[in-house]
Amino acid sequence: MEEHERLTVGRVAELSGASVRMLHHYDRIGLVRPSARTSAGYRAYSAGDVERLREVLAFRRLGFGLREIADLVDDPAADTAARLRRLRGLLVEQRDRTAAMVAAIDRELEGRAMGIRTTPEEQLKVLGARLYERIGLDYPATRRTEPRIAARIQQALGDARTVLNVGAGTGSYEPADREVIAVEPSAVMRAQRPAGAAPCVAANAERLPFPDDAFDAAMAVSTVHHWPDPIAGLREMRRVARRVVVFTYDADTPGWLDRFWLTRDYLPEFGALLADRPSLADMARAIGGRAEPVPVPWDCADGFFEAHWRRPEAYLDERVRRAVSVWTRVGARAERRAVDGLRADLDSGRWAERNRELAALDSAELGLRLLVG
Ligand SMILES: C[S@@+](CC[C@H](N)C(=O)[O-])C[C@H]1O[C@@H](n2cnc3c(N)ncnc32)[C@H](O)[C@@H]1O
C-alpha cells in the first residue's frame, strides 16, 4: 500500500469532520478499525478502512443507530456499489422530505400571517411530510394524459397485452385496451385514482413485488427522477417485463438549462435538482434500450414543467406550479423570485422580445425523451 493511502486518525478527523474521540470509539467497538500503520509506526486507516468509515459516517448523519449501521456495512449480500446506491437513495429521500417539510412550514407561516391557525393534526403532518403526500392533492388540477405523448407510448408498448405502470400516480397514460397493474407508493396519489382505473399496488420501483418476466411490458411516465435509486428501479422494470418504456428527460447535453427559457432566465435552480441524477445513457443501458426525442406540443394537455413553453402566463398560476414538484423542491424563495421576474418581463414585453421565435412553433424540443428497451 502506498504511504499516501494510509491516513492517521488526526488526518481522517480533519478531512471528515468527525472527532478523534468518535473515531476512537468506533475503533473500540470494532465498527471501523484503522488496520494499517504509517512508516513511523502509528496506526492508520487503509483505503478499505476509509471506504467503510465513509459509509458509517453517512449513515450516522442520516440518523441510524450504531448497531443498525454495523448490520448495514457488514451486509454480505451487497457489494460496495450496491451499498452506495442504497445510501444515495436514503440521502435523496431525506432531501426530498426536507423540501416537503420546508414547503409545509412556508404554507403554515403564510396561513398564520393571515390569521389562520393550523390544527395539531396538521402540525404533526409537517414532520411526516413526503413529497407526493404533500403536493399530491394538487396534482389532478392540471396533470392529465396528453394524447400525442400517449400515442407514442402506445406505439412503444407494441403488442404487449399485460402492462405494469410504475410510479403510476393518478393513472394518466394507462392504456385502456391492455391489462394493466399499477405501482404507486404514495397513498395520496393512490386515493385519487379514478373509479375503474387499473388495480394499484403500494410499492417502490426499486423493489417490485413481482416475479421475473411477469409482464409483457413495464412503463414509467414522468416518475424516474423521483426515485431514490433510478438505476435499481429501471433494472427492476427490466427484470419483471420483456419490454420497458420510460418517459423522462435528457439533462446531460451541455447547456441543457438554456434549452428552455424558464430554466435559462428565471429558474436556474432546476439544474441543482438534477445534478446527481444518472445520465440518460446510463438509464438507457439499465433497460438495454435507446432514447427517442419527444417534442412538446404548444398546447400540451399534461401540465408538466415544460408544458407551457408557449403559454408563459400559465406559470404565474399557483395551481399550475403546485402540480409540478420542481416548484416545491427549489424552495419558496427561488419560486417567488422566478415568478416575480417572469411577471415583470411579461408586463414589460421583455419576455416576448426575448422569445419571439416561439410564436411560430407548434412543438418544441425541450429534452424530453422516450427510452424504449
Ligand atoms: C409526476 S408523478 C407521475 C405520475 C404518473 N406516472 C403521471 O404520468 O401522471 C410521479 C410519481 O412517482 C411516484 N414515485 C415517487 N417515488 C417513487 C418510487 N421510488 N417508485 C415508484 N414511484 C415513485 C410519486 O409518488 C408520484 O406519484
TrEMBL record:
Q: Does the keyword DNA-binding apply?
A: yes
Q: Which InterPro entries match?
A: DNA-bd_dom_put_sf (IPR009061), MerR-type_HTH_dom (IPR000551), MerR_fam (IPR047057), Methyltransf_11 (IPR013216), SAM-dependent_MTases_sf (IPR029063)
Please indicate if the UniProt record lists DNA-binding as a keyword: yes
Q: Which domain of life is it from?
A: Bacteria
Q: Output the Gene Ontology terms for molecular function.
A: DNA binding; DNA-binding transcription factor activity; S-adenosylmethionine-dependent methyltransferase activity
**Domain HTH merR-type positions:** 6-75
Q: What is this protein called?
A: Putative MerR family transcriptional regulator
